[in-house]
Amino acid sequence: METTANEFGRGGARVSAATREAAHEAGRTAREHMQNLISDVEDLIDRVGDSSDPELRRLRSKVADAVETTKRSIGDGAGQIRRQAREAWAAGDRFVHSQPWEAIGVAALAGIAIGYLVSRRRVSDSERPVGASEH
Question: pTM of whole model > 0.85?
């Protein structure tokens, strides 16, 4: 029985590492897109330059302020999300270590429920007449 528990531990570590890597990659991609957008807006502000039109100067200043506020918010939000993710991960890890059989049971029930829903979807798709479309 010890081998089984060890196998669960190793498998969980691999899943954990893969999940963490996927989350990091999603975060990197989102940061890159946001940085590109901010860079494009800043470039646009620079191209507008100093205009003699007071309305255009006011609008340029307003957009520049919004970009700076957005940068600060993104930095603050990213830190908060990282803290919350670490706390949630630690709570889940504590639960699994303190109650491993309950965690295995919850995972098994979730797998059964997902399998049931997927199989129902396949059955309903196969019962649809040929040429019928979804609404």
Answer: no
